[in-house]
Amino acid sequence: AQTVTQSQPEMSVQEAETVTLSCTYDTSESDYYLFWYKQPPSRQMILVIRQEAYKQQNATENRFSVNFQKAAKSFSLKISDSQLGDAAMYFCAHRTNAGKSTFGDGTTLTVKP
Amino acid sequence: NAGVMQNPRHLVRRRGQEARLRCSPMKGHSHVYWYRQLPEEGLKFMVYLQKENIIDESGMPKERFSAEFPKEGPSILRIQQVVRGDSAAYFCASSPVQETQYFGPGTRLLVL
């Protein structure tokens, strides 16, 4: 079975600064996908970034980037130039090739003006 | 291309009633997933369906819960004889083949 651990229940960052959200996972799969989702107060789940485990290059999406360490089973999210609209709960997720996803318990990010 | 649609967005039921949650996947998506989110928690996988087939229901409670994805029409998550502990947000996601899952807005179920 897969597990996903987000060790930071809450994080805060000053507007325009950089913040890193941590995620570790455990899996017996050799091929899988990792995701970060954002859930604002509306509770809509919004895809932030995705990483294929077979790719060594870290995924980047505008101000969002990941540090994927496959051997260490670590998948952290870096948000650069933080904006007020980035405030939300962030979930890390692992998905197997069979389609089943496991989510962490989330990190609540506060952005201070 | 409309996103994943879920209805109703809010559903109130009394204990013992039935709840039916509907999910229309994005156009061209043949894979549907259901998740449950309790307050202050992450999403928990419930079931994974393709058209007319249940692929993985390892996260579904053994009793009272069922899901289907018929050849025509939306996917349905059905909860019979609801109890207070069923109160949660239920999210549906869809994907083309087995790729990135896109989520609907969720259905908030409240059991009185």
Question: What would the keywords be for this entry?
Answer:
heterodimer, A: 113 residues, mainly beta, 6-stranded mixed sheet, B: 112 residues, 7-stranded mixed sheet, 11 strands
Describe the structure.
The complex is a heterodimer of chains A (113) and B (112). Chain A has 113 residues and is mainly β. Chain A has strands at 3-5, 10-14, 19-21, 24-26, 32-39, 46-52, 60-61, 64-69, 74-79, 88-96, 101-103, 107-112. Chain A is built from no helices and twelve strands. The model of chain A has no long low-confidence stretch (mean pLDDT 94). In chain B, strands 2, 4, 5, 6, 9, 10 and 11 form a seven-stranded mixed sheet that branches. In chain B, β5 and β6 (53-56) form a beta hairpin. In chain B, 35% of the residues are buried.
Mean pLDDT level of chain A: 94
Give the class of chain B from helix and strand content and strand pairing.
Answer: mainly beta
SSE order of chain A, one letter for each helix or strand: EEEEEEEEEEEE
Shape, principal axes of CA atoms of chain B: globular
Element layout with pairings:
The complex is a heterodimer of chains A (113) and B (112).
Chain A: E1 3-5, E2 10-14, E3 19-21, E4 24-26, E5 32-39, E6 46-52, E7 60-61, E8 64-69, E9 74-79, E10 88-96, E11 101-103, E12 107-112
Parallel strand pairs in A: 2-12
Antiparallel strand pairs in A: 1-4, 3-9, 5-6, 5-10, 7-8, 8-9, 10-11, 10-12
Chain B: E1 5-7, E2 10-13, E3 19-24, E4 31-37, E5 43-50, E6 53-56, E7 65-68, E8 75-79, E9 88-95, E10 102-103, E11 107-111
Parallel strand pairs in B: 2-11
Antiparallel strand pairs in B: 1-3, 3-8, 4-5, 4-9, 5-6, 7-8, 9-10, 9-11
Provide a brief overview of the structure:
The complex is a heterodimer of chains A (113) and B (112). Chain A is built from no helices and twelve strands.
